[in-house]
Amino acid sequence: MTRATPVPGASAPVTRSGADGLGRSPLVVVLAGGLSHERDVSIRSGRRVAEALRSTGLDVVVHDVDADLLAFLRTTRPDVVWPLLHGASGEDGSVRDVLDMAGVPYVGTGPRASRTVWNKPIAKAALLEAGLATPDYVTLPQSLFRDLGAQPVLDTIVAHLGLPLVVKPTEGGSALGVSVVSRAEDLPRAMVGCFAYGETALIERAVDGVELAVSVIDGPDGPEALPAVEIVAENGYDYGARYVPGETEFFTPARLTAEQAAHVADVAVRAHAALRLRHLSRTDLILDADGTAYVLEVNVAPGMTEMSLLPQAVVASGRDLPGLYRSLVETAVHAVR
């Protein structure tokens, strides 16, 4: 069995110091790594959050998701865990299920709502039921193309949804397996790329407009939207555009009117509430020329790297990033007392 590369800092000794109403500073375990396609991004997110929390005086340990984790949690007995895991297991609710069974509090959404958000078609159905707009779509498994013949199915898709289209796996993140298709002859290649990351494809009508990300934080008065981040990626906001410096231009706050900014903030808060999310989320959307905000997807484990959108939004709001991270930890700790 191949072992994953260790997470940097994961072997740091556990120490507790200070005081925070518990007679000591809360011990936070940041989960980072895992074995999904997004392992490297998770490690970068975990490292950044751990450094920020340590700067506020908290005791923080970074740990991978491996065979040692449950024993580590039993012996260490952390006050809270922050799962900064992207991709399968980290976002599909399974790790959160295990944390619930182990009786360990954690930052973020619970397993059931995480499972809903992880499956994009199910999440889109919930958003539509809540009265939110999302691009028209169909969901098709790879087996259907074998059963009915690929070309007839592809022709039917184009006839029904038109062009351009966006093809993406029904589960996953970081734009892995995602393609924008402007010509019918490019659709077969897009489907092959999608099926490399999952057995089922979500094909949706591409919406032209301003690409935005709106993060939501649970505050004392309920969910609150942070300033929208506008994303300008010449060749599409793919994996490289997300994580390679210089590939994408960000405007934070986004270049919106006050009315538009209020509208997309309201949409993100409504999505957060409709999907029953907790502590933090990020809603990705397109604002079209008519002022309609189409929700593309919602994320329960937003990236926290140096290029990620939620940290940019926090800074744009004028808040202290480490301080906000600490407040999320304290919210999770106090919720179980």
UniProtKB/TrEMBL annotation:
Matches recorded under PROSITE patterns: ATP_GRASP
Cofactor binding note: Binds 2 magnesium or manganese ions per subunit.
Catalytic center residues: E38, S174, S308
Binding site for Mg(2+) 1: D284, E297
Catalytic reactions of this protein: 2 D-alanine + ATP = D-alanyl-D-alanine + ADP + phosphate + H(+)
Keyword Transferase among UniProt keywords: no
One of the record's GO cellular component terms: cytoplasm
Binding-site residues for Mg(2+) 2, renumbered to this chain: E297, N299
Alphabetical list of Gene3D superfamilies matching this protein: 3.40.50.20, ATP-grasp fold, A domain (3.30.1490.20), ATP-grasp fold, B domain (3.30.470.20)
Keyword Nucleotide-binding tagged: yes
Pathway: Cell wall biogenesis; peptidoglycan biosynthesis
One term of GO molecular function: ATP binding
Main location: cytoplasm
CC cofactor: Mg(2+); Mn(2+)
This protein's UniProt keywords: ATP-binding, Cell shape, Cell wall biogenesis/degradation, Cytoplasm, Ligase, Magnesium, Manganese, Metal-binding, Nucleotide-binding, Peptidoglycan synthesis
Pfam families in alphabetical order: Dala_Dala_lig_C (PF07478), Dala_Dala_lig_N (PF01820)
SUPFAM superfamilies to which the protein is assigned, alphabetical: Glutathione synthetase ATP-binding domain-like, PreATP-grasp domain
Subcellular location field: Cytoplasm
Biological process per Gene Ontology, one example term: cell wall organization
E.C. designation(s): 6.3.2.4
Domain ATP-grasp residue range list: 124-330
Function (record text): Cell wall formation.
Family, as annotated: Belongs to the D-alanine--D-alanine ligase family.
Record-given protein name: D-alanine--D-alanine ligase
Originating species: Promicromonospora citrea
